[in-house]
Amino acid sequence: MSALTITPNGPLRGTIRVPGDKSITHRALLTSALAEGSATITGYCRGDDCLNTLRALQALGVAIEVETDTVRVWGKGLGGLTEPVLPLDCGNSGTGLRLLAGVLAGQPFFSILTGDDSLRRRPMGRIVNPLRMMGAAIQGRKGGELAPLAIQGGTLQGIEYRSPVPSAQIKSAVLFAGLFAQGETRFSEPAPSRDHTERMFRYLGIPLETDGCHVVLSGRPTYTAKDVSVPGDLSAAAFFIVGASLVPGSEVRIVNIGLNPARTGILDVLGEMGADIRIVNQREDAGEPVGDLVVRAAPLRGVTIEAADVPKMIDEFPIFCVAAALAEGRTVVTGAEELRVKETDRIHAMATEMTKLNVPIQETPDGFVLDGGAVVKGGTCTSHGDHRVAMALAITALTGDAPTTILDTDCIATSFPNFHDNLLELLTISL
Ligand code: S3P
């Protein structure tokens, strides 16, 4: 269990790339594995989460050649996966496990999905219920609420499913199962979640209709693999966007970042807080909007976040807490109870750890209240085993009055193995 010590060391300056988008990498791997023909995925995320999905696909009989920046996947078509002899270990990845569950629900064989301590505590009933309605037999602890999940897949029927929570993972589990189902699969959710699955399906020519919070997919399409270039992950870039906004004198350019509008809530909110963020060189790649970001330090002010704002920045709350801590005035977040079922309870983890660094956060059942203008004190804090909490604390540490040690930072490798190197690269070393 390693630790990271961060010494405040002046502005962040320079140009960096961050890892490929984690959500898009999972989907590119899965759709390529189920396609006819082969495809090269460039710029994929090499974090453990995506590597676990890649290994699960190999265990399902998919040939994948792995290079530093690319993977080549030889698709097996919709009917070609083979029964794995061992449980498939998704590690820390909710996305990996839930999307694979959708795929496995449609297979005429038995499989088991499991993960680490954190993943085995996270709610799975939300995908097990619709997949059972489609015809899969799924068992798990607590009646299927908790992994490991044992799946006997088979012939599926399209269903009409209304998800009680906005969630791209639930939507994507149902849509991946819908690829194998007879007839149409209809999915709706209370607010739009990220639509990478829909964009990837459309890019590959899989017929699908979308309208706001509704998706309709016709089952059993045949489609041919297509190369995918994965843009950088905005959720990884967010740590440096906030770092550069907060540390006086900073100017950072982050190139080739995915700018899917279902993900850019953090840019909108930071903009509202007064951040100086420019988007340049906008373009489209594999059906996803992409651009470069130029961020300069600027004074921030507090902001109010409500339920409708949450899905578009769901993964950015740990780093958003840091922006709010250093902003002038009060920040209030409500309607964010989903944060309690992420890799850890992120409301509780951030409140506990930021308090150790002299940031006063008041935890509420569905969010937090934070009076900004904190004077951050160096000290020791812990990640709770959550990669985004660990990185958010590292950025908080840049604003402290003394070095800060963050404990339990191995988890950073789930999404951003080079985080510390990138950070050191941007820090102006004052010799
Ligand atoms: C993801 C969806 C989000 C997000 C997760 C990645 C995805 O979860 O928090 O990190 O790739 O589909 P929910 O859709 O469950 O909110």
How would you describe this protein?
It contains 13 helices and 25 strands. A hairpin with a 2-residue loop joins strand 14 (208-211) and strand 15. It has helices at residues 22-33, 48-59, 94-105, 125-134, 141-144, 168-178, 196-203, 234-246, 265-273, 317-326, 346-356, 387-397, 419-426; strands at residues 3-6, 13-16, 38-42, 63-66, 70-74, 88-89, 110-114, 137-140, 146-152, 156-157, 160-162, 181-182, 184-188, 208-211, 214-218, 228-229, 251-258, 276-285, 288-296, 304-305, 330-333, 361-364, 367-371, 380-382, 404-407. The chain is of the alpha/beta class and 431 residues long. The protein has a 4-stranded mixed β-sheet with strand order 2-17-19-18. A 4-stranded mixed β-sheet has the order 4-5-3-16, with helices on one face. The protein has a 4-stranded mixed β-sheet with strand order 6-7-9-8. The chain is globular and about 60 Å long. The protein has 2 domains: 3-20 and 232-430, UDP-n-acetylglucosamine1-carboxyvinyl-transferase, Chain; 22-229, Enolpyruvate transferase domain (UDP-n-acetylglucosamine1-carboxyvinyl-transferase, Chain, Alpha-beta prism), CATH 3.65.10. Helix content is 30%, strand content 26%. Helix 1 (22-33) packs parallel to helix 2 (48-59) and helix 8 (234-246) runs parallel beside helix 10 (317-326). Shikimate-3-phosphate (S3P) binds next to helix 6.
Which SSEs are present, and which pair or pack?
Blueprint: E1 3-6, E2 13-16, H1 22-33, E3 38-42, H2 48-59, E4 63-66, E5 70-74, E6 88-89, H3 94-105, E7 110-114, H4 125-134, E8 137-140, H5 141-144, E9 146-152, E10 156-157, E11 160-162, H6 168-178, E12 181-182, E13 184-188, H7 196-203, E14 208-211, E15 214-218, E16 228-229, H8 234-246, E17 251-258, H9 265-273, E18 276-285, E19 288-296, E20 304-305, H10 317-326, E21 330-333, H11 346-356, E22 361-364, E23 367-371, E24 380-382, H12 387-397, E25 404-407, H13 419-426
Parallel strand pairs: 2-17, 3-16, 6-7, 10-12, 11-13, 20-21, 24-25
Antiparallel strand pairs: 1-25, 3-5, 4-5, 7-9, 8-9, 13-15, 14-15, 17-19, 18-19, 21-23, 22-23
Shikimate-3-phosphate binds at residues 23, 95, 167-169, 172, 193-194, 314-315, 338.
